[in-house]
Amino acid sequence: xxxxxxSRATEAQNMQARYTRRDAQADARRYGMDNPYAFAAxxxxxxxxxxxxxxxxxxxxxxxxxxxVGCGNGGNLQDLLRMGVVPARLAxxxxxxxxxxxxxxxxxxxxxxxxxxxxxxxxxxxxxxxSQDLIVLFTVFSSILAPxxxxxxxxxxxxxxxxxxxxxxHDFVYDNPRNPDVRGVSVRQLRxxxxxxxxQVQRATLAPPIGxxxxxVSPALYPVLNSVPWLRTHVLCLLSKPGHVPALSxxxx
Length: 253
Description:
The protein is α/β, with parallel strands linked by helices. It contains eight helices and seven strands; from the N terminus they run H-H-E-H-E-H-E-E-H-E-H-E-H-H-E.
């Protein structure tokens, strides 16, 4: 047991170091909404998210308990609020203290943001087993380089879900040769991490190098090039846990 705790703590420390290094090297202009490529990819992701949720019978986010693991600065949580999640039923877990602090600044006070390791024992006081309707995992597992920690986090997330709940997943499937701090997660790996889940999988997100070049010419090229599936580098998935999905009225806005 102690070896497991030590390996978790070591990977958490390594992740913090990788995030810090990445933040120091990153060009913020690449990811802001004033960047045509970032804006186009964000719009595509929102459309696909909504279609997956509605298509699975999850029409009313206002009646759902939603948690994002690895919530960063709170951008995805803001999107979920716009889609109808009630602030008091929305929560996030973030490893990096500065990102968690920024999320607290941006989000309504009723949203709960917990800073720390999602696998730490004290996190179990915040999130009860079987308490969440939807858990959001966006580019989280590609930043975890230890397979055993990936497995442990997948098991923890699965335990937090209610019967009939789902994981909403967005991550890339290919390694980035320019960034050794991340590693792509294939659909095959995803199925192994969540073997009991029913998967709905979509290829998404135009490859960043191609998308950035294209959008510098014209943002209108994004949907044209993105219509070619093999140019998409990410998957957007809904991983549903067996059980009854409540029939909810009031569709998504």
